[in-house]
Amino acid sequence: MRTILRIVTLAMVVLGLASASLASDDGPGFIVIVNPDNPNDAVDRDFLRDVYLGKATEWGNGDAVHPIDLTERFAARDRFTEQVIRKTAAQLRTYWNQQIFSGKGVPPPEVDAAADVIEYVLSNRGAVGYLPADADPGKAKVIRIR
Amino acid sequence: MVVGAVLGTFSTARAQPAPPADLPHPAAPPPAEPPKPVEPPPSFRAPPIQIHGFVSEGAFVSTANDYIGNSSQGSLELFEAGLNVSTQVSDKLRAGIQLFGRDVGQFRDLPPRIDWAYLDYRYKPWLGLRAGIIKMPYGLYNEFADIDAARTPILMPQSVYPLRNRSALLAQTGFAVYGYHRLGDGALDYQAWLGTLDIPANALVIDGATLDSIHTKYITGAQLFWRTPLEGLRAGATFLRTSIDFNLTLDAANTQALIMAGVVPADFNGKLVISQRPDSLVIGSAEYTRDNWLFAVEYARWLKHQESTLGSVLPPFDEDNERFYLMATHRLSPAFELAAYYSVLFADAGDRAGHDKAKFPKPYFAWQRDASATLRYDVNEHWLWKLEAHFIDGAADLFAPAGAVPDRFWGMFLVKTTVTF
Questions:
Q1: CB of A13 within 8 Å of any CB in chain B?
Q2: Is B258 a member of any domain?
Q3: How many domains does chain B have?
Q4: Are residues B31 and A135, on separate chains, in Cβ contact within 8 Å?
Q5: Buried b (16+ CB within 10 A) or exposed e, A4-18
């Protein structure tokens, strides 16, 4: 049994290093938008992650924060999930299954069009969303990620 | 051997790109996006009431010994189902209820019971209050241990998440405070709770007696997790303490035998109360996720002081279980995931080798070591299949009837499918 454990540990370390060495340095592929009345010009990445995981519920001024998500068919969703939430799509699904079936929360609402994200953000003062990098945010306010 | 072979396939894993150091990265070209729908529906408004559910069915068989149920003959009793309804009453207040039913070997919750049902008032991110029937925090996964889609193995490591204790660890009725606090590059997740347990009498099978009822005086506990500055690493601990009375009636043969032996009065009616005061559970946990990998390790001690109303027959004693496991999972592709774990239970942390013949007729009754491998296949977002194999040494967690001599080395194989919505 000890031999098996050693093999398992060695295999995981080697394969973990291999995965790390294959990392790329692509750009984010999305922009983050908020309501024009939102006073923030930038948002902390960890705060944004907490918002999309249901951990953070308020902006700094006490306003409730309402995230909106794109559906999984958008490449921007994959990039946002990997770079901001720091999970894979499968890990995020698992996370929300855990939350939903333990009663702790439900995921942000999803929309299937960038225009719906903009409409949601413009109609909700505390909203935050993201768009494909080449999308026109219209009257929504684009904010930086720190 | 099998664990090693399974891990050999990990080399085909698809590497995920690591996130860039700084965001955003304006130099990179945007990825191609799918065409927009012609008339996008206004589907973004979250429904006022959300309904979710799952249904699982499976089968299991063991090469020897009966584990969970009648496994040595093969069993189709691997059914679980849950249905929940929840609503966001306001920005700070949520309410919901989940019904959960199962027919898993000898563990049966049919008709379904209330799994959780509570009001959740989140005053601030760092302070919330839940009241009602609340899932029990214990280690990394106890709150989700019934949710097949939320884990990779079919059987979670049984040393730490044993099915035989599932009803006791499922949920508590009472209050819980919880919160989340950012801490530099990390964060703290914390909960504390006080309530009682509602354990159905069929939660335990006792040889030679009928379990009439189970009564808990209280259960209390606290959990703290630290999301460390090392991305993907979290670590924490959970402490639980409870006091439980088991009200039993000995069967006629045992009652008569005790009367004949003169250890109880002639009018003894067979009623007996076994008290566990207290049961204390403590567990340390760590989990590390990186790309498509997940590693978890947990170490627990279960300390029990037991006494009974028949002290001459069942004298008081103290028990100290040692329980731990190491687990790794790896997502090979969007559809396939592998998991492997090594789980160990020592019935007596002070006698891991089973030297005490009075407690352990065979030394291997003192331990149970379980090496497991699982393949999970996600047909789509809502439907999955799992195959799982266990190679087990020892019999410390078996439901062997009195006098039976279980095999030391045995295997168990399971298959399960789950639909969630």
A1: no
A2: yes
A3: 1
A4: no
A5: beeebeebbeebbee
